[in-house]
Amino acid sequence: MPVLNISNFNIVTACLGGFALVFGLISYVVKEHCYMGEALPALLFGLIFNKAKWVIPEEYGNVREITLEFSRLVLGIQLVLAGVQLPAKYLVKEWRSFFFLLVPVMTTMWVVTALIIWLIFPNLRYLDALIIGSCVTPTDPVLSNSVVKGKFAEKYVSESLRNIISAESGANDGFGYPFLFLALYIDRYSGTKIAKEWIVETILYEILLSVAYGAVIGYLGQELLGYAKKFNFVDDESFLVFVFALGLFILGTAGMIGTDDLLAAFIAGNAFTWNDWFREETKDDTLQPTLDLMLNFAIFLWVGVVMPWGQFNQPHLNLPVWRFVLCGICVLVFRRLPAMLVFYKFIPTIKNIKEALFAGFFGPIGIGAIFYLHTALNKLDEFVEENEHGEAHTYDPHWLITVMYPLVYFLILSSVVVHGITIPVSMLGKQLPTTLSRTMTMTRSFSRSRSASRDRTPRDPEGHVKIDAISNPTDLRQNIHVVDESGTTDDSQDTYTRPAPEIGFVIPDRRGDQV
């Protein structure tokens, strides 16, 4: 007798495959006509799977650990791809733009976001708000693809702006470490210990070492692949997936030595295509976008499943939903836009205030925020353990964790929704007046045409067509009035023949009444 095997693995694969099938059937309409990416639909489907109890993540193991490593995997591959897709020597050519985006703009984003959180949520120190703000400061490379790829981007966004948005989202996802760990070290240490730990461990070891490591591995990978291709040692399939293997290798090795694996992945991708050879060879390839799409499906479905929906409204903890909503609105409006408007004149790739407004608004919060959230939570757990063992650190981070976890997820949700529907709504608003105008013009022209035709037809007092004489009793000739788009009537004669057995008969017209 057959036995059902409703295991967690079977359920998860069925849900992922089912969503991919449904979305795939309408993907062209969603992306090219609605200008919407896959993130928002995947997130909503994840919510449905969660509420229907089809996917119960708590049964799979440590949800926080799974989410951290899953986000790290997706980001690592995405950042390698982001680096590979940039033009040759892009980081050197646009060093000034990168400096201002990664230092003054990012620092302003961090400080402003922390200020908003500190003002809205009770019983938080400003230092606590800085820790939370550091998680949502980097822009997300996954969500940024919705404004740098596709028909909308090619038509409305300049190539230079697309490149800098993509490059910034790749670089600052790895550059978020200094902001997070500066706040954590200030919370943990005092005096010169803060500077020592932050400069030596974070700046020198995690940031600079990751840049050097990524550059070396990326360059060596490009040279080895070039020789393999030259002597026909590599087949087409392995050639195309080489960059994915490079991303996995960087993640694993950089993670083992404890450096910033995300930044190393981005630098490796850019070094890998330093001479533009690989990018030109694969510019028409569909394998990379396909694998990229499946990763996006999986991660945003997972985010929808694990998102703490029930923690967005906790009145008993003085965390009602209005605080989250207000914070989401303020962060999306003030987190990035003011900084971009202030510094855009120093950024050569942003040429005018219109591009500054666009780049300032589209700085989405996504998978990078999840990675930094769980990295910070692991560090705060260490602080809790140190407190329990009676070490010098005395501050209890439990309240910070209570606020931080749902807030970061809510800001991710806000960004996915707002940035996901902004372009479709704006395009609808742009096209709606034109559509309505054309409809009204056609309606008025049609009405005038019918009125003119009716008025010029001879009628008797009762409204019937009056026919005094017809040379051929089998034919009836009427005027056909042609109306052009401007509403002008062309009174050229044409013949409309209808059989008339006898002169003087009442003939019904196409309107259904009698004429």
UniProtKB/TrEMBL annotation:
Domain named Cation/H+ exchanger transmembrane is located at 30-424
Give positions of region: Disordered: 441-465, 484-515
Any one Gene Ontology cellular component term annotated for this protein? plasma membrane
Decide whether keyword Nucleotide-binding is in the record.
Answer: no
> What GO biological process, any one, is recorded here?
proton export across plasma membrane
State the superkingdom: Eukaryota
Main subcellular location of this protein, as a coarse class: membrane
Membrane topology term: Multi-pass membrane protein
Compositional bias ranges of the Basic and acidic residues kind = 452-465
Any one GO MF annotation of this record: sodium:proton antiporter activity
Keyword annotations from UniProtKB, A to Z: Antiport, Ion transport, Membrane, Sodium, Sodium transport, Transmembrane, Transmembrane helix, Transport
Record-annotated membrane-spanning stretches: 6-30, 98-121, 198-219, 239-272, 293-310, 322-344, 356-374, 407-428
| UniProt key word Transmembrane | yes
Could you tell me where the Low complexity compositional bias lies? Answer: 441-450
State the compartments where it is located.
Membrane
Pfam families assigned to the protein according to its UniProt record, in alphabetical order: Na_H_Exchanger (PF00999)
User: In which family does this protein belong, per the annotation?
Assistant: Belongs to the fungal Na(+)/H(+) exchanger family.
Kindly give the PANTHER family that the UniProt entry links to this protein: NA(+)/H(+) ANTIPORTER, SODIUM ION_PROTON EXCHANGER (EUROFUNG)
Q: What is this protein called?
A: YALI0E02156p
Organism of origin: Yarrowia lipolytica (strain CLIB 122 / E 150) (Yeast)
